[in-house]
Design a protein that fits this description.
Layout (H helix, E strand, L loop, with lengths): L2 H10 L27 E7 L1 H17 L3 E7 L4 H11 L8 E5 H10 L21 H6 L10 E13 H5 L11 H15 L4 E3 L10 H8 L17 H15 L3 E3 L4 H8 L7 E5 L3 H7 L7 E4 L13 E9 L6 H12 L2 H11 L6 H4 L16 H10 L11 H18 L3 H16 L5
Parallel strand pairs: 1-2, 1-3, 5-6
Antiparallel strand pairs: 3-9, 4-7, 4-8, 4-9
Helix pairs in contact: 2-13, 8-9, 12-13, 16-17
C-alpha cells in the first residue's frame, strides 16, 4: 500500500480524531521468553485511522494482561517510515515495540535490515497463519520462511462501473468474463455517447498511475519481482498487461487524467466521463460520501480475467503489525498484535474503531460485519469482498527495490501510452535499466 493510497484514505477520512499518546520502545533485543506477568510497557507506532482501531482494543487487552501497558503513538504517514528507517539504521535504538507497516515496505526493511524485524514464528505466528488469506500472509513473509508481520488491513482489487451507462448499449458488465470483453463493450459505449472506458495518468505524474497495471499483472500471477528477487517486469504476463492498456488507448478509450486525489474524485463523481474505475476494496466507502447523486448507478464487480478461465481476483495492498527485532518486550508485543488482529474479540474492537477491512478471516463470518449497502442497491459490500479475498490470488514480492521498479515501469508506460511504443520493447528496456540499477537478474 503505497503513500498515494494513504493520501486518498486520509482525505476521505478528514476530520478524524488523531491519537497522540507517546512513548518509545527499543533496546538491545531479546524478550521472546519474557514473563508476561512482569510489569512492562509496549509502544505501538501507527497513523490516524488504523491507530483508532488499535486504541479501541487497548482497554480490553490491558484488562486481560493487567501488567502490560500499551501506548499507541500516531506517528503519521509517511513519517512512520522515515522514523522506522532511522531507528533500524541505528540498530533499533528508539524504535517502538510494534510498528504498523504497509505491504510495499516490508521487503525493503527485511532486505536492508535483516534483523530489523522479529521473526514472528518464534513467538507463535505459525499457529494463526491459517486464519489469514494465504497470499496476504505470504506477502508479509520472507523467502526464508520467516514471518515479519500479521495482516491488519487487507484490500482486494475491484472494478467499479456505471451500470446505467453500459445499459444504454445493452451491456451487463457483471456477465462479462475477460478484459477484452470489456474492451469491446467500451468501444460501443464510446461510439454511442463519447464516454471513455477508464482514465489513466498517461504522463505518470504520480506512482499510482501504475496501479491498474499491477492489478492486471497480479491476475496473471506476476509482479515486478518473483520470490527469488529476480526481475519479472518484462515477462509474458507483464507484457500482456501493458499490451491491454495500449490497445485500450489506441482505441481512444482511455481518458488522460493526471494523478492526485481531486482528479481521482472527478472520476467517482462522474465529472471525468469514464465508465469504470479500477480500484480496490477501500474505495467502496468513498462513493456514498462523495457522489451521493450517483447512488444506484455505480456497481461493483471483481476483476475480469486476462484470458478465458484465468484468475479473477487480485490482492491490492495490505498493512501489517510487525515487532521490532530490537524490542525488549517481544513476547508482550506479539500478544498485543495477536489480541488485536488474530482473535474475534479484539478484531471486533479494532474494526469498530477503524472501519478498516480486517485480514482476520473468522471476523468475516460475524454478523456485525455483514450489512447491505443502500448505495450499491443492497449489495453486502463486506461479504462481496470476503468472496474476492477467498478466491485464488498470488503473493506480491516488493523487495527493497520496489520504488526503482515503479519508476522503470511508469517510464515505459508513458512511452507506450504517449508515443505508441511497443509494450514488449519498452518493458525489455525497463527491465534492463532496473537490472543495472539493482544488480538483480532478469528472470
Amino acid at each position: 500500500m503505497h503513500p498515494n493510497r494513504i493520501r486518498y484514505v486520509a482525505a476521505a477520512l478528514a476530520g478524524a480524531t488523531v491519537i497522540t499518546l507517546s512513548a518509545c520502545g527499543g533496546g538491545s533485543g531479546g524478550g521472546e521468553g519474557q514473563d508476561l506477568s512482569a510489569q512492562q510497557t509496549i509502544t505501538v507506532w501507527t497513523w490516524d485511522q488504523p491507530g483508532k482501531g488499535l486504541e479501541a482494543a487497548v482497554p480490553a487487552f490491558e484488562k486481560q494482561y493487567p501488567n502490560i501497558d500499551v501506548k499507541i503513538e500516531n506517528v503519521g504517514n509517511p513519517a512512520i517510515y522515515d522514523k522506522t528507517t532511522t531507528g533500524m539504521a541505528a540498530g533499533g535504538v528508539g524504535l517502538a515495540d510494534v510498528i504498523n507497516l504497509g505491504i510495499d515496505y516490508m521487503g525493503n526493511y527485511t532486505e536492508t535490515f535483516p534483523d530489523g524485524l522479529a521473526d514472528l514464528n518464534a513467538l507463535g505466528a505459525d499457529t494463526i497463519a491459517k486464519d489469514f488469506p494465504p497470499g496476504i500472509w505470504a506477502s508479509g513473509s520472507g523467502a526464508d520462511g520467516k514471518v515479519y508481520g500479521v495482516p491488519y488491513e487487507v484490500n482486494s482489487a475491484a472494478v467499479y462501473y456505471r451500470k446505467d451507462l453500459f445499459a444504454e448499449v445493452g451491456v451487463d458488465v457483471a456477465t462479462l468474463a475477460t478484459w477484452d470483453d470489456l474492451l469491446e463493450a467500451g468501444k460501443k459505449l464510446k461510439a454511442k455517447n463519447g464516454t471513455f472506458l477508464f482514465a489513466m495518468d498517461k504522463a505518470a505524474s504520480e506512482s499510482s498511475s501504475a496501479d491498474f497495471f499491477q492489478t492486471l499483472s497480479r491476475l496473471q500471477g506476476t509482479f515486478f519481482f518473483n520470490k527469488d528477487g529476480k526481475i519479472t517486469l518484462n515477462d509474458a504476463g507483464s507484457v500482456a498487461a501493458l499490451d491491454f492498456l495500449k490497445r485500450a488507448n489506441d482505441a481512444g478509450l482511455v481518458a488522460d487524467v493526471p494523478g492526485g486525489w481531486d482528479n481521482f474524485m472527478s472520476q467517482i463523481k462522474g465529472q471525468a466521463n469514464v465508465a469504470i474505475v479500477p480500484g480496490a476494496s477501500w474505495v467502496a466507502g468513498v462513493f456514498a460520501e462523495n457522489a451521493p447523486d450517483l447512488a444506484g448507478k455505480w456497481a461493483i464487480r471483481g476483476p475480469l480475467a486476462m484470458k478465458p478461465g484465468g484468475q479473477t481476483a487480485a490482492l491490492s495492498g495490505a498493512t501489517y503489525l510487525a515487532v521490532a527485532g530490537a524490542s525488549e518486550h517481544k513476547k508482550a508485543a506479539f500478544e498485543f498484535v495477536k489480541f488485536a488482529l488474530a482473535g474475534t474479540d479484539g478484531a471486533k474492537l479494532v474494526y469498530q474503531g477503524s472501519g478498516l477491512f480486517p485480514g482476520y478471516m473468522p471476523m468475516w463470518e460475524t454478523e456485525e460485519f455483514k450489512a447491505p449497502s443502500t448505495y450499491f442497491e443492497g449489495l453486502n459490500v463486506n461479504e462481496f469482498f470476503v468472496g474476492e479475498l477467498k478466491k485464488e490470488t498470488s503473493p506480491s514480492y516488493y523487495t527493497k527495490d520496489y520504488a526503482r521498479a515503479l519508476k522503470a515501469y511508469t517510464d515505459a508506460q508513458s512511452q507506450v501510452l504517449l508515443k505508441g511504443a511497443d509494450p514488449k520493447t519498452a518493458l525489455d528496456e525497463a527491465a534492463k535499466v532496473l537490472a543495472g540499477q539493482t544488480k538483480r537478474d532478469i528472470a
